[in-house]
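Re-running GNAT family acetyltransferase to confirm reproducibility after the cluster update. Everything else is unchanged from the original entry.
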Amino acid sequence: MWGPGTWPVSLGSGDIGLRPIRLSDRAEWMALRARNAEWLAPWEASNPQPGGSLPTFRQMVRSLNQQAREASALPFVITLADPHSSRPPIVGQLTVSSIIWGSALMATLGYWVDHEHAGRGIAPTAVALATDHCFFSLGLHRMEINIRPENGPSLRVVEKLGFRYEGLRPRYLHIAGQWADHESFALTAEEVPEGLTARWLASRA
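Result of re-run:
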């Protein structure tokens, strides 16, 4: 159910947090993306239209916020607590998109994390937090994640969290200038009655 307490919302586990992306994040977000340009380039969404370009930061945030108002997306940044800063720095981005209500109750999730923080459990924790919010606060039934077969770090995230492999989607999204195959993974609420975050943290312990 979409309403008070479901969006805008901030989520967290330990030092890792999710909060809504804001226009005021522009300088920090742009600097982070610049540092990760080479790291993210092979997985970067591109515009299939001839001569088409990606939206600016301002256009992206306004579009995502409009989708959030329409109850079709949850646009988060991923933060990591810093003992030397009162404002946790941004270390990545996570967006729940294509939310479908009615008889489907499903959504798609995508994410990226700063290469200097990869492999530290940040992405799996963020995905688990967002998935639990969708299942237990919004009442969604299914979460789907689509990943390039060559993207080893992202494949390890869904493997750690126990997402089911559902098959290959040929030429699914336009990535880095060409239509690219993706492998599809999914999880339903019945598969994690105890919560995905609790299961993930228990597996780490």
